[in-house]
Design goal:
Layout: E1 2-6, E2 10-14, H1 15-19, E3 24-29, H2 50-56, E4 58-59, E5 61-64, E6 67-71, E7 74-79, E8 85-90, H3 104-113, H4 119-125, E9 126-133, E10 136-141, H5 148-153, E11 161-162, H6 165-178, E12 186-192, E13 196-201, E14 214-219, H7 223-232, E15 237-239, H8 243-250, E16 255-259, E17 266-270, H9 284-292, H10 296-304, E18 309-310, H11 332-341, E19 348-354, H12 360-372, E20 375-379, H13 384-392, E21 399-404, H14 410-418, H15 430-447
Parallel strand pairs: 3-14, 3-15, 19-20, 19-21
Antiparallel strand pairs: 1-17, 1-18, 2-15, 2-16, 4-11, 5-6, 7-8, 8-10, 9-10, 12-13, 13-14, 17-21
């Protein structure tokens, strides 16, 4: 697993669209929208489903410009001094799109039916979700767990997003995906999977009715197509384009580019077969060779106009508890030397290379760098939802390009990829799993005000 860059995603918009307070805003979406992304219970360990969730649904607390745990459907929350209970007081008058009031029963139901990223981790920690009354819910933990609110109140998971119990039980899970009802600022008008989603402003939204009255997500997976549509005015906003398209759009007078170099997104290469003793990837020297073969700065320039930051970790430096690790240098000569020392002087066939959809050009560039030192691959492209499903089900072999832009902290990011409960973890290093579990225990004992004599934490130096 070798980190490439901390991603600065490029958001491009027409200035006329930014100025318009009402009417329709059309997004040229870079991925094929999947039905499961309309249901918070299915949320994967990536940021992309939240593009839809923020429109249609709402959470008790969620990341907003004002902070990572902004009060939303909850008007307040408190934690007991012993760290064993969290109380949430629901906002009075918050309603779902069908007019039903959001209640504590809906909160408990939404937690119990959640099966997405982090589900096992958080449910193993929660002993009971108690409905105190219709407007108050209490989470009882089995033991103090400092990461509870990171999982429940950030985009590390979708467990804190609330759906209406009565409606879901009436239509079933499949029916809910076809016609979701949420408590968010927009209600669904129509959805054609893989093509288009249309939503209209929910006038009963508790915060305030949106200024933009109609929101359209139009699937355009090709960068050049999205760029052309933006220049023509067929769409108002596009997201995540490669360097050449972004450079062309930057020269267009009526368009504006916005990037966030301190965002949560990180690219890396995952090597599922490194856990197979018969695979070349099992040799640490081979993995190091592949890392040294990558010209990260050239990729940065080509994909994000040089605005991203190189990194040596899948955990963004902006995350709490992140360990700042620098990216390895670009050294193809050293890479060839390491391959020879590992017994592959002529390189080897590494199988298929799966770029993270739809970043196929980036995948081809990375495959080219690997091929230049003798690690030969064959590009295989997939649609985003299918790729994520295959990754979760451990059906991808060879080399795959990972990307995660969700929020959280170092623990939530690592849990998904390097621990036994991880939704995308193909294998686990025993010493890493042991350290992860012991550190969690240390946090628990520390939060319970243990003494130095009774709380021994492993060194992470």
């Amino acid at each position: 697993m070798k980190t490439l860059v901390a991603l600065a995603l490029l958001l491009l918009a027409s200035t006329s669209a930014l100025a318009a307070p009402e009417g329709t805003m059309t997004w040229g979406v870079h991925v094929s929208l999947a039905a499961r992304w309309l249901d918070p219970a299915e949320t994967e360990g990536t940021i992309i489903p939240f593009m839809v969730l923020y429109a249609l649904h709402d959470a008790l607390v969620k990341p907003m410009p004002t902070g990572p745990n902004t009060l939303s459907l909850a008007e307040s929350w408190t934690m007991a001094k012993d760290g064993l209970t969290y109380d949430f007081v629901l906002r009075k008058g918050a309603r779902f799109h069908n007019g039903d009031i959001v209640t504590a029963e809906d909160v408990r139901f939404s937690f119990e039916r959640y099966r997405g990223a982090g589900a096992k981790q958080i449910k193993d920690k929660v002993r009971e979700v108690q409905v105190v009354d219709s407007g108050r819910v209490r989470f009882h933990l089995k033991e103090p767990w400092p990461d509870f609110l990171t999982y429940y109140g950030t985009t590390a998971s979708g467990v804190g997003w609330i759906v209406p119990q009565k409606y879901v039980e009436q239509v079933g899970d499949d029916g809910f995906k076809k016609a979701p009802i949420g408590a968010g600022p927009y209600r669904l008008v129509s959805f054609n999977p893989g093509v288009e989603l249309v939503a209209e402003a929910f006038e009963g939204y508790w915060r305030k009715a949106p200024h933009v009255k109609r929101l359209v997500f139009k699937v355009m997976s090709d960068d050049t197509t999205r760029g052309a549509a933006l220049k023509k005015g067929d769409v108002d906003v596009i997201f995540q384009v490669n360097g050449p398209v972004a450079e062309d759009l930057r020269r267009t007078p009526h368009l504006r580019i916005v990037s966030r170099p301190t965002g949560n997104g990180v690219f890396w290469l995952d090597l599922p077969e490194q856990w197979d003793p018969k695979s070349p990837w099992h040799d640490k020297h081979v993995r190091q060779a592949a890392s040294l073969a990558l010209d990260r700065q050239a990729v940065n320039q080509a994909e994000s106009l040089g605005t991203s930051r190189l990194t040596g970790s899948i955990v963004p430096r902006s995350f709490e508890f992140a360990l700042p690790l620098d990216a390895p240098p670009y050294d193809p000569a050293k890479a060839r030397q390491l391959l020879a020392e590992a017994g592959y002087p002529s390189g080897f066939d590494a199988g298929e290379f799966y770029p993270y959809p739809p970043l196929y050009a980036m995948g081809e560039a990375l495959a080219g760098y690997l091929g230049a030192v003798g690690i030969r691959t064959r590009i295989r492209t997939m649609e985003r939802a299918a790729f994520l499903t295959a990754w979760r089900e451990k059906r991808l072999k060879g080399v795959l390009m990972g990307l995660n832009g969700s929020g959280g902290n170092a623990a939530t990011r690592l849990e998904a990829y390097v621990t036994t409960t991880g939704i995308f973890a193909y294998g686990v290093l025993p010493e890493v799993e042991d350290l992860f579990q012991r550190l969690k225990g240390c946090y628990i004992r520390s939060s319970a005000s243990c003494t130095s004599a009774s709380c021994t934490c492993p060194s992470t130096s």
